[in-house]
Amino acid sequence: MQIGIDKIGFFAPHLYLDMNKLAEARNIEPEKFTIGIGQEKMAVPPITQDTVTLAANAALNILDEEDKQRIDFVIFGTESGVDHSKSAGVYVHRLLGLNPDARAIEVKQACYGATAGIQMAKGHIALNPDSRVLVLGSDIARYGLETGGEATQGAGAVAMVISADPKILAIEEHHAYRTNDIMDFWRPIYSDKAFVDGKFSNEQYMAFFENIWNQYKEKSGLTLGDFEAICYHLPYTKIGLKALRTILTEADEDKQERLQTNYKASSQYNRNVGNIYTGSLYLSLLSLIEQKKDLPAGARIGLFSYGSGAVGEFFSGVLQPGFQEHLHVQQHEELFASRKEISVAEYEEIFQNTLPADGSDIELNTQDDPAAICLSGVKDHMRQYTNRAD
Ligand code: CAA
Prior knowledge:
The protein is α+β, with helices and mostly antiparallel strands. The chain has 2 domains: 3-168 and 327-387, Peroxisomal Thiolase, Chain A, domain 1, CATH 3.40.47; 170-322, Thiolase/Chalcone synthase (Peroxisomal Thiolase, Chain A, domain 1, 3-Layer(aba) Sandwich), CATH 3.40.47. The protein has helices spanning 19-25, 30-37, 51-60, 65-70, 88-95, 113-127, 198-220, 237-245, 253-271, 280-291, 329-337, 344-352, and strands at residues 3-11, 15-18, 41-44, 71-77, 103-107, 132-141, 154-164, 169-179, 185-186, 195-196, 229-232, 300-307, 311-319, 340-341, 362-363, 373-379, 382-387. A hairpin with an 8-residue loop joins strand 9 (185-186) and strand 10 (195-196). The longest helix is centred in the middle third of the chain and has 23 residues, at 198-220. 48% of the residues are buried. The structure holds acetoacetyl-coenzyme A. Acetoacetyl-coenzyme A binds at residues 29, 31-32, 35-37, 111, 148-149, 151-152, 184-185, 196, 198-199, 201-202, 205, 233, 235-236, 239, 275, 277, 306, 308. Acetoacetyl-coenzyme A is lined by residues 29, 31-32, 35-37, 111, 148-149, 151-152, 184-185, 196, 198-199, 201-202, 205, 233, 235-236, 239, 275, 277, 306, 308.
């Protein structure tokens, strides 16, 4: 039985900041951000979007009534969750009107959470072939104004339905993974912004990739020549390109060219959204399969997942016949086209406009947020959500 991605959708908030303008405001050459880091636009979440609403909006766009009945497991990967106890998966389960006879949990290991979710879903479906699992990767990446990580912020979510006989990507059996307790990036419980050792985090990303890629080749017997594309966790798009370049000479010249062309397609959405942590690798996969129109069915795609702290994994999937018919390209193009640019001053104001930290109530104005599902306030310590699609 093949198991894999049957549906995949994406959501980002409606506001963005142009990286050229951020560079100008920070007295930095724009090319550092657009070429050196490889980012064009950064999604900026208004206060009415949190990780729950981002994920719920991403899933809302791909689920039909049958999915809502058949999903019996919601796995929510995030590192910017909204509650230390209650899982974000439970909120999303209710907001989407899913069948109550389901499990709903949250998974945390930095940007690796959604990958853990996919592997867990795979095991669940192997035991329950009729089941469908909703895997979510949703995050708001916050480092702080005028920090080294500022240019690598972002916000958004990817939603995937994992099932038997998947229509988009069948996940193969070979995996290579690794854990090492390091402090390259973390967020203490008292902080709403990440702490990061930028250079060390880059080094560790590369070291994990080298180790895991070699392990994967040994376990699977596959070589780079067997891959049509490799998608990477993309905190910023330059880092995946650098990782790809470290192994390119393992393939012949034709394949090298194809891998580089496909890398460009796989980083297009990320370049215009920024880091979305847990969803980032799957946004890259979505970008590849929606933007590279001539990918053949049967092509093998490699996926490199990296979650600081750190856990990494390399696995692969094979594109299924007719997969293009099951994508939501137009919906995603409209999402990008309808976004609104904001100024650096507006971005700074939105960044600092956070929910009360003392537990007091707040009512939020959701009128300016076109998303179907929004955070409308906090009352008696409970987040209030509205769903215009109801
Ligand atoms: N034109 C073109 N390129 C330029 C340039 C210009 N005018 N000026 C600088 N550059 C290039 C630099 O040469 C450099 O390129 P190389 O990496 O090829 O050397 C690149 O722009 C970036 O410059 P710096 O290394 O000087 O950048 P920095 O130190 O200011 O910040 C960063 C980079 C460390 C990634 C920082 O943005 C950061 O800390 N980000 C958050 C952490 C992060 O994303 N880490 C990634 C791995 S960890 C992970 O993957 C988990 C996760 O999601 C967080």
